[in-house]
Amino acid sequence: MTIRDLIRLLGDGGYHSGEALGEELGVSRTAVWKQLKKLEALDIPLEAVKGLGYRLAHPIELLDGQSIIEALPRETRKRLTRLFVEESVESTNTFLRERFRQGAGHAEVCLAEVQSAGRGRRGREWQTPWGRSLVFSLGWRFESGASSLEGLSLAIGVVVAEMLESDGLPARLKWPNDVLLQIQKDQPKIAGILVEVTGDVSGPCDVVIGIGLNIELPASHREDIGQSVTAVRDIIPGASRNAYAARLMESLLALLPEFEAEGFSAWQQRWNERNAFKGRDVVILRGDKREEAIAEGVDINGNLEVRMNGETITLAGGEISLRAVS
Predict the structure, then answer these.
(1) Is 323 labeled as catalytic in the residue annotation?
(2) 243 pLDDT higher than 80
(3) Where would a tag sit more exposed on the chain, N or C end, judged by fewer CB atoms within 10 A?
(4) What total of structural domains would you count in the chain?
(5) What is the spatial distance between Cα 98 and Cα 237, in angstroms, rounded to a whole number?
(6) Annotated binding site, which residues?
(7) How confident is the model at residue 127 (pLDDT cuts 50, 70, 90)?
(8) Statement to judge: residues 87 and 172 lie in one domain
(9) Residue span of the structural domain in which 288 resides
(10) Which of 77, 79, 233, 323 is an active site residue?
(11) Is the pLDDT of residue 273 over 90?
């Protein structure tokens, strides 16, 4: 019995007694009770009515590999090698890095209901609630080498932003890896991107692209994150995780061959049009060093240009963080 099995039963809108759940799942009532306690620990609220049993207080849309594949255009299905849908992994990026070590990984996608050790940029923890965000990774082998991948995370940010914009969500991009929404004067974060590269500078290299997209965020998770965040269902209550998974796969599997052929130049203008900090005062954090500047745009290699002490300075990726001045 897995948590997915239990949620599938409890999510049909009806009440289920512990005895009925045990019979359906082939386990004891005690085992069912232990799993119900796990749901509470995962911040999945239940309704319990004496004499009737249990049901989910709010429906949870489980990831469904078959429906995701069926939603893909034919050309995307041709490019996709394999789709993994997991209940829990350490991280979807780690899962695909291991696949590359095993000699697979290219054009494979891993989705998970939750990850126990998800990471963002600079090793930060990426927290997601069970079954309510999209935790997505895609593996791709580039033959042209790591040196040709400048600006890749920014190009990915563009296609994520364009996907959100097609649903009327006003997406903005924060250099180098964040997708924000423009909500009046606030710009809360809705998605993050983590690109990990292994291989040669000039030869074949393996790339794992991780994307965390907030579909739904309970209040308890927002409090723990420590920055302004938002979620798709804040604006589109019926948004489907499975639909967004399929659309991400379609967008990325179209982007990657084109990026290998053209580099970042095809996405530079589109990124700059969505630059969240264009012309704004920003703080640049490099280790313990803190500098103030005015943000401009990104160059053809995806480096950020800022004005500092009357001069234009170019910032590459790595251990650099950007903050807007309030």
Answers:
(1) yes
(2) yes
(3) C
(4) 3
(5) 36
(6) 91-93, 115, 119-121, 185
(7) low
(8) yes
(9) 281-324
(10) 323
(11) yes
Confidence of residue 227 (pLDDT cuts 50, 70, 90): confident
Q: At what angle do helices 152-165 and 265-272 cross, to 10 degrees?
A: 50
Per-residue confidence at 298, pLDDT binned at 50, 70, 90? very high
Binding residues for biotin, as ranges, are 91-93, 115, 119-121, 185
Do residues 29 and 88 both lie within one domain? no
In this predicted structure, what is the pLDDT of residue 145?
84
Instruction: Name the catalytic one among 55, 97, 99, 121.
Output: 121
Cα separation, 126 vs 211, in Å, equals 10
- Confidence (pTM): 0.93
Can you give the pLDDT at residue 118? 63
How much is the pLDDT for 141? 96
Indicate whether 36 and 170 sit together in one domain: no
307 catalytic, yes or no? no
**pLDDT score for 159:** 97
**270 catalytically annotated:** no
